[in-house]
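Lecture 7 notes: from sequence to structure.
We start with the chain below.
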Amino acid sequence: MGCKTCMEDRISGLPDELLCHILSFLYTKEAAKTSILSHRWKNVLASVSSFDFCVQSPNMVSDRCAGFVDRVLALGGSSYIHRLRLECANIEDYFSRIDAWICTAISRKVVELDLCLLSYSCQSSFELPRSLFMCDTLEVLRLRVKSNLITKPPTSNCFPSLKFMHVTLYRPFYDPTLYRTFYDSTRNLFSCCPVLEDLIIDGFVHHKPAFLFNVFAPKLKRLEINLYVILDRKSNHPNGWNLEDKFWKNAESLSKAKIALRVPPTGYPGDIYLWQLLHYADQLSKLLAGINKVTYLSFSAPISENIQWCWKHAEGYLVAHKWRPPESVPVCLLSSIKTICIHGFYGRPYEMEVAKYLLKHGEVLTKVTIFYTNDLGVAEEMRLRQELSKFPRGSKTCQVELLELKS
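Predicted C-alpha cells for the same chain:
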C-alpha cells in the first residue's frame, strides 16, 4: 500500500486581511521577504497598515535601510497607515528623509506613531514637522529623544485626537545652550492636549538648567512620571528642576498617578547633595499638593521624608523610602485610604514607626501589605510579625499581610 505525503500550505489559504494582520507583528524588513513567495504575497505587503523600521547601522547599510523605508512607504500609495514605528540613530544624516517619512504617515491618516530619534552629535537639531501636532487622526504618540530634538507645537488646535503620550528623555548632552533649547521646546509638547487620557514621562532630566513642566490636559486620567534627576556637582544652588503651579491646572479627571524620582549615584560631597535634594523636596510638595482627586497613588523619591501628605480622596497609597509624620493626621488617612502597600521594608525603627502610625490612624483601612527584603532571615521575620501584630489599629477590619519581596 503506497503512502503519499501531502504538504498543505494552510497559510496561503488565509484571507488577505488576516495575512496583513500577521505581517504587522513583524519588522517590516522581515515582512517584505514574504513578497518573493508569489505575486499574491507582494500585494498583501502593499496592503499592510503597520510598519516597523530601524535605521541605525553603519553608514553604507543605513543608506540601504533608508532607501528601503522610502520604497515601502511609496508602495502603499495613499492607503491608510495604522501604526508607524521608526527607530533612527545618527539622525543628522537623514533629517529631510525623517521629516518626509513622518509627513507621509500623517498624510495617510496614521493612528499610532512611535519615534525613536537619536543622535550622537550635539552640533545640530531636528525639528518635528508642524503637521504632526495638527494631525486629527493621531491617537497614540511615543517619543524617545535626546537633547537635539526641537518641538514647536501651535498654541491652538494641537493634538485634537491624541489620547496616549509617552515621552522618554534620554541622558542629555551637556551643552547648556542645546539643553536649554531642547527643554524649552519639550515642555510645550504637553501644553495643549485637550483629549489626552494617559501621559508617561520618563528618562533623565538635568538639574541645571531648569526643566519646567507645563501640561494642559483636562481629560487626563492616568499620569506616570519616572525620572532620574542629574545633579550638578559644581553648584550648590537649587535653581534647577521646577514644577509650576499650572502643571496641575485643569487636571480634574486625574484618578491614578505613579511618580518615581531618582538620583543616580553621584559621589558628590554630602552638603551639596543634601542642599539640592532639599530643593527637590520643596518642588515635590508643590506637585503632590495638586493631586487631590486621585484614587490611586504610587510615590517614590529619595527625599520623601520632607513631604507633607495632604490628599483628601486617595483610596490606594504606596510608601517608599523614609517618611516623617505630619503635624496633624491627613484627612485621607482618617476617611478614605483603604489599602496601603509598603515596599522594601527592613524593619528599621523609623519604618516601624511609619507602620504603627498608619495602622493607628487608618480608620477605614481594609488591608496593609508590607513587602520585606529577602535577606532578613527567619528570626527577623518572626520579630517583625510579632511587633506588627501588637500595634493598635484604627480599623477593626484591617488585615496586615507581611510578604517577601521577590526580585
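Points to note: The chain has eleven helices and 17 strands. The two ends are 60 Å apart (CA to CA).
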